[in-house]
TrEMBL record:
Alphabetic keyword roster: Membrane, Transmembrane, Transmembrane helix
Record keyword RNA-binding present: no
Pfam families per UniProt: MptA_B_family (PF26314)
Membrane-traversing stretches: 7-26, 46-70, 82-101, 141-159, 166-190, 210-235, 242-271, 283-302, 314-333, 345-366, 387-410, 430-450, 462-482
Record protein name field: DUF2029 domain-containing protein
Species whose genome carries this gene: Candidatus Magasanikbacteria bacterium RIFCSPHIGHO2_02_FULL_45_10
Length: 501
């Protein structure tokens, strides 16, 4: 009954969105403007308050549903045909909801349009402007933050939908639905495979997860694509198909660059599998993987390569600070540093904050470095679940402490990794952390949307917003992670450990 009630919320959102699609098509409603839910750019105070209460109520329901699912979603061991239909309906309803937590879809559409017109988004300015966005929101993009595989997908989807923005949105969302299903099925399968069937069926938990539905299917974020490549890499490493591991990671890297961070873990995994009897076969497999990865790289970059400057946009994006721990510390100290150092304040403050956070990162990751060194020396070996756990911890530390920008959809990165690592190792901190970050992350959207309804909206630019995000989303998992780190993340876990669930 709870799932049905939860589905009713998505039905209301989808119905509202379908009604508004007509207004969007008729250009009387612009969804990028403040107050797009009411299809008017200027709302009276009463309407703003009413709309704010509706937004808060919607996200409160999503947060409550997320907490309930993490607590009770594992209780459904048998997924019946009726339940499968309900879960599929959730996905279809989420697919219809107009994006309300991000403006990335106009970016995707506009980049596809620019490429179709012969522009190279990596070195040519192009306009982010689509048929349903307010003309005052139009801007010129001077960088392209994604890999060449995404540029090609945007290009061909634009051609396939003949430049129709509504068809582009629905086509893109359908691709995200397929990705969502594929990631879910592979995650559930890997949980069973790596834990040797000592697992709980989390099918319901995955396919009804509010954050995944909202970020991937409603807002259209494509993190599921590179996560799918990472899951394939984990599967091929676990089954010792080493010639496929690097190609799978390469596809992920040229989608969103981030999987490059995980290559050392898979290299260590491969090294652990080598001995005097197998080194020749494993080396040949690895070399085949390198050749295939090179072919994938060349094919991906051929339409766009203009030299190393294609990565300039990635460097530019890495300098943007938004609602992260770095941004919170930097903007809190900036007035003080400017009063003392004037024009040199930025240079000194940036290096001070980055240096301090680097020390924290090294401290938090030291147990991983220590265990990795033991594996390099052939003094220790990990099972597959420990490698997934190491990737989960590394990515969590990187995102919480080192990433300069923080967005709620980043928390979707951890859901498949946490599922697999928890099922394989049964360590309680994994469950505690993923329950928190995958549910509380939606409050960032509440603050953004409520702030956008203000008379002079500038969502996310105020210092209070950064403190709000850090305080609500990050502080608790950081505390759990720090307590866990004092026990070396329980890589030598025994049954009496307080971290075993």
């Amino acid at each position: 009954m709870v799932i049905i009630g939860y589905g009713s919320l998505w039905f209301v959102l989808a119905t509202f969105s379908v009604i508004r699609y007509g207004a969007i098509w008729g250009r009387s409603c612009f969804f990028q403007t403040p107050g797009w839910l009411a299809c008017t750019a200027q709302l009276e105070n009463g309407a703003r308050i009413g709309l704010g209460l509706v937004i808060a109520a919607i996200f409160a329901c999503l947060l409550a549903a997320g907490l309930w699912l993490w607590k009770n979603g594992t209780a459904v061991a048998i997924v019946s045909g009726r339940l499968r239909l309900i879960l599929l309906s959730l996905g279809m309803l989420a697919l219809l909801v107009v994006p309300l937590g991000s403006s990335d879809l106009p970016y995707y559409f506009s980049s596809g349009k620019a490429i179709s017109e012969g522009l190279n988004p990596y070195n040519s300015p192009w306009k982010v402007q689509v048929d349903f966005s307010d003309p005052v929101q139009s801007l010129t993009a001077t960088y392209y933050a994604y890999g060449p595989i995404m540029a090609t997908i945007f290009h061909y989807l634009y051609l396939l939908t003949k430049g129709n923005v509504v068809l582009f949105i629905l086509g893109w969302k359908m691709l995200m639905l397929i990705t969502f299903v594929a990631c879910g099925l592979l995650t559930v399968y890997l949980c069973k495979l790596i834990s040797k069937n000592n697992t709980i069926d989390w099918t319901v938990l995955w396919f009804s997860q509010p954050l995944l539905l909202f970020e991937w299917l409603v807002n259209g974020h494509f993190d599921g694509l590179w996560l799918l490549s990472l899951l394939v890499a984990i599967y091929t490493a676990h089954t010792k198909r080493w010639w496929l591991v690097l190609p799978a990671l390469t596809v992920g890297v040229w989608i969103k660059f981030l999987p490059l961070l995980f290559v050392p873990f898979f290299a260590l995994w491969w090294w652990q599998d080598i001995n005097w009897n197998t080194w020749k076969n494993k080396t040949i497999q690895a070399l085949v993987g390198v050749v295939v990865s090179g072919a994938i790289t060349m094919a991906s970059w051929v339409p766009y390569w203009v030299g190393p400057k294609v990565f300039d946009s990635l460097v530019m994006q890495s300098k943007w600070a938004f609602s992260s721990i770095f941004a919170t510390i930097y903007y809190s100290l900036k007035p003080l540093f400017e009063s003392v150092l004037a024009d040199q304040a930025h240079w000194y403050l940036t290096r001070l904050v980055q240096g301090a956070l680097l020390v924290v990162v090294l401290y938090m990751l030291y147990p991983l470095f220590k265990k990795s060194w033991a594996i390099l020396l052939k003094k220790e070996a990990w099972e597959s679940g420990k490698y997934v756990l190491a990737i989960f911890i590394f990515l969590l530390v990187y995102t919480l402490f080192w990433q300069k920008s923080f967005w709620p959809w980043y928390m979707t990165w951890f859901i498949p990794l946490a599922n697999i690592a928890y099922q394989a190792t049964k360590q309680k901190p994994i469950y505690t952390i993923i329950t928190w970050i995958s549910t509380v992350a939606v409050v960032q959207h509440v603050a953004l949307l409520l702030n956008s309804l203000s008379k002079d909206p500038a969502p996310g630019t105020s210092l209070w917003f950064s403190w709000f995000v850090v305080g609500t989303i990050m502080v608790h998992p950081i505390y759990v992670l720090y307590s866990w780190r004092k026990n070396d993340y329980s890589f030598s876990l025994n049954e009496s450990s307080p971290y075993a669930k």
